[in-house]
Design a protein that fits this description.
2 domains, alpha/beta, Urease, subunit C, domain 1, TIM Barrel, 9-stranded parallel sheet, 16 strands, binds zinc ion, 7-stranded mixed sheet, globular
């Protein structure tokens, strides 16, 4: 149960009210150097300066003291595969060979409900340890993998979105469903989990090459039948993959066009990677309300390419930040933000500290159409947040000590930071993780 009583936590509070943009709009962030975050019934009541708030609040109010720490909204990771936890950091391949050599054999084991449950528990604990409180997550082809994940997320009261993978060709037999079976199993999972507590379902075709047209058609049918469920898949990640899609779907104008044909571009549809999109694709993404998942550690690790954040935002696409574990190399959204910064640098643009915070919190919430629930400390939002220790190592402590603005403190946190900075993680106003001191 979420904490019913009014409680408070005191520290340096920072959150985004909107995208700071390329001009780095100073009013896009709200911060209180000595601030108080008030929580009741699992939701944010308000944030403000401690002195002012304490004056009018009951004198017996319980206040958690996190002075010297940053309090920020929980990170939101818009693309991950929990079933790939064990293949993270597998050496030396690009996407298509990486799938065949490492990923498919591992995913093949997830029909085992016990293995799925154990991995889901580990994965969610790892998210909490990294300050991530919500995510959009792939299972394997087995419905058991989705059941296990939802049950584990429900026990932790986390806001999570997940789905069982749909794939009926171009993968080992033990990982294939059929269009009808995939449709039926997805339907049953939607009925069992979608909208239950803080859980949502995502229709999950792996990517165009592993689904027949019949399966993509049924995915579109499912999407039309359940307009408020999510859709998640991959697009335009790797050059060989893009060429393969052009061969498999000779009628398509582009890779993205394949999904468009089957009604899979819409609000609450999240497309991982979006590296090799052209201008028309980007405009179509923006117009349909579909969002991109920017996965920098995965894109550099697998040698896929550089996502163009500036071009995506330039046409009004929604973009969230994502680790893409296990193609990505870290569960940490701090490390992932640092890599996003470097990818932007290599693409001829830049990302300010404020924009990195936005990407990892409110921007990702917007990509999921959940900005009215998570991603900031606006009143009424669900109180998922992280207490960040800015100096857990000698170097970070030293660097933090010479920062003379909040912006500089945030930037060095994003560039140097990782799981060691996460002191505690809170779900609906209750502590769900505490680092050992
Ligand atoms: Zn992925």
């Amino acid at each position: 149960m979420a904490a019913k009583q009014l409680t408070a936590i005191r520290g340096t509070i920072v959150h985004c009210l909107r995208d700071p943009g390329e001009s780095n709009d100073p009013d896009a962030l709200q911060s209180f150097e000595d601030g108080l975050l008030l929580v009741e019934d699992g939701r944010v009541v308000e944030v403000g300066p401690t002195e002012e708030l304490l004056r009018r609040l009951p004198s017996d109010l319980s206040v958690e003291d996190a002075r010297g720490r940053l309090i920020i909204p929980g990170f939101i990771d818009v693309h991950m595969h929990y079933v790939q936890t064990d293949v993270i950091a597998s050496y030396g391949e690009q996407l298509l060979s990486w799938l065949n050599r490492y990923t498919f054999p591992t995913e093949g084991r997830f029909g085992d409900a016990e293995l799925a449950a154990g991995t889901a528990d580990f994965f969610l604990e790892e998210l909490l340890r990294n300050g991530t409180t919500s995510a959009l997550v792939f299972g394997s082809v087995h419905p058991e993998s989705a059941d296990a994940f939802f049950a584990a997320a429900q026990r932790r009261r986390m806001r999570m979105i997940a789905g069982k993978v749909l794939m009926d060709r171009n993968a080992p037999d033990f990982l294939l469903d059929t269009p009808e079976r995939g449709y039926q199993e997805s339907r049953e999972l939607i009925e069992r989990w979608h909208g239950v507590d803080r859980l949502s379902y995502a229709i999950t075709p792996r990517f165009a090459p592993t689904s027949t047209e019949a399966q993509l058609e049924l995915s579109g049918k499912l999407a039309a039948e359940f307009p408020d469920v999510y859709i998640q898949t991959h697009v335009a990640e790797n050059r060989d993959e893009v060429a393969w899609v052009a061969e498999l779907f000779p009628w398509s104008r582009s890779y993205l066009d394949v999904y468009d044909r089957y009604g899979l571009l819409r609000e609450r549809a999240v497309y991982a990677h979006c590296i090799y999109l052209d201008e028309q694709d980007r405009e179509r993404m923006a117009e349909s309300g579909a969002a991109a998942a920017f996965c920098p550690t995965s894109n550099t690790f697998l040698g896929s390419g550089l996502f163009d954040y500036r071009a995506a935002r330039g046409v009004g696409m929604r973009v969230g930040l994502a680790t893409d574990v296990g193609g990505g190399t870290s569960f940490s959204m701090l490390k992932t933000a640092a890599e996003a910064y470097k990818v932007a640098q290599l693409s001829g643009s830049t990302l300010s500290a404020e924009r990195l915070l936005y990407l990892a919190t409110l921007g990702s919430a917007e990509a999921l159409y959940m900005e009215d629930r998570i991603g900031s400390f606006q009143p009424g939002r669900e109180a998922d947040f992280v207490v960040v220790n800015p100096g857990p190592t000698p170097l970070m402590e030293r660097r933090h000590g010479v920062c003379d603005s909040l912006s500089e403190r945030l930037f060095s946190l994003f560039i140097l930071g990782d799981d060691r900075n996460i002191e505690s993680t809170w779900i609906q106003g209750e502590k769900a993780y505490q680092a050992l001191s």
